[in-house]
């Protein structure tokens, strides 16, 4: 598990929390934890592509590809396994959050929160693995992924309410795929957010289908 989300949790939770509460916006820890959970899932999921590059460099992938199964099965097998690991890492953040004062206010919604944690992890495992299929260098892949991941985190409403962003950034937020994941996580963790749940679910599922099709194509074209 990456230490970066936990550092964000401590720094923002204790550093910005008091100012957030004084401004009359409520308990910042309640707002922050779902965002840090999503951030941790996003980072661990995209970096799961590193295992594919590792397998390519050391020849393990060739042994896998000779198995009598389709490449789409191999792709989704890797991504489903990676998504499961990412969800468990998200639970670790929730435990830390409980120690810092976070509380789940509606346990009836919590199973849906787990479901969308898993779907978020699946989406970004597909993204990371699909991109990794075009890389052979383990040094350049993390650099490019960090270049993509950090803007998605900060321009999504994960750490700060996006309603306060300038108008130009408001449009960027709408085109950020992570925005829809975070909106659903916050809603089902019991945070009061103004979202169209069916639309957000449709966008998330649509992105999984699109990235899955793209990833299957790239995986099939991959040189080993």
Q: Layout of SSEs?
A:
Layout: H1 4-15, H2 17-22, H3 28-46, H4 49-58, H5 60-65, H6 71-99, H7 110-132, H8 140-154, H9 167-174, H10 177-188, H11 197-220
Helix pairs in contact: 1-3, 3-6, 3-7, 3-8, 3-10, 4-7, 6-7, 6-11, 7-10, 7-11, 10-11
What does this protein structure show overall?
The protein has 224 residues and is mostly helical. 73% of the residues lie in helices and 0% in strands. It is elongated, with a radius of gyration of 18 Å. The model has no long low-confidence stretch (mean pLDDT 83).
Name the descriptors:
224 residues; mainly alpha
Helical stretch count?
A: 11
Structural class: mainly alpha
Tell me, rounded to a whole number, the average pLDDT. Answer: 83
- The succession of helices and strands, N to C, reads HHHHHHHHHHH
**Low-confidence parts lasting 5 or more residues at pLDDT below 50?**
none
Number of strands: 0
Largest sheet: none
For the termini, the CA-CA separation is 28 Å
Q: What is the subunit organization of this protein? A: single chain
Q: How many distinct folded domains? A: 1
Binned, the helix content reads over 70%
Q: Give Rg in angstroms.
A: 18 Å
Shape: elongated
Short précis:
The protein is mostly helical and 224 residues long. The chain contains 11 helices and no strands.
């Amino acid at each position: 598990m990456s230490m970066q989300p936990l550092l964000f949790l401590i720094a923002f939770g204790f550093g910005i929390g008091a100012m957030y509460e004084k401004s009359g916006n409520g308990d910042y820890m309640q707002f922050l934890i779902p965002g840090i959970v999503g951030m941790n899932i996003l980072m661990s999921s995209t970096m799961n592509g590193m295992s594919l590059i590792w397998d390519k460099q050391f020849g393990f992938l060739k042994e896998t590809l000779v198995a009598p199964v389709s490449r789409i099965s191999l792709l989704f097998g890797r991504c489903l396994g990676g998504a499961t690991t990412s969800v468990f890492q998200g639970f670790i953040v929730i435990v830390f959050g409980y120690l810092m004062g976070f509380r789940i206010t509606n346990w009836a919604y919590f199973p849906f929160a787990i479901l969308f944690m898993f779907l978020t992890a699946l989406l970004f495992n597909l993204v990371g693995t699909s991109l990794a299929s075009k890389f052979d260098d383990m040094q350049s892949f993390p650099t490019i992924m960090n270049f993509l991941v950090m803007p998605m985190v900060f321009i999504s409403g994960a750490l700060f309410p996006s309603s306060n962003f300038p108008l130009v950034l408001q449009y960027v937020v709408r085109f950020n795929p992570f925005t829809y994941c975070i909106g659903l996580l916050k809603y089902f963790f019991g945070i009061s957010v103004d979202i169209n749940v069916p639309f957000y679910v449709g966008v998330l599922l649509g992105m999984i289908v699109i990235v899955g099709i793209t990833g299957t194509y790239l995986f099939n074209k991959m040189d080993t």
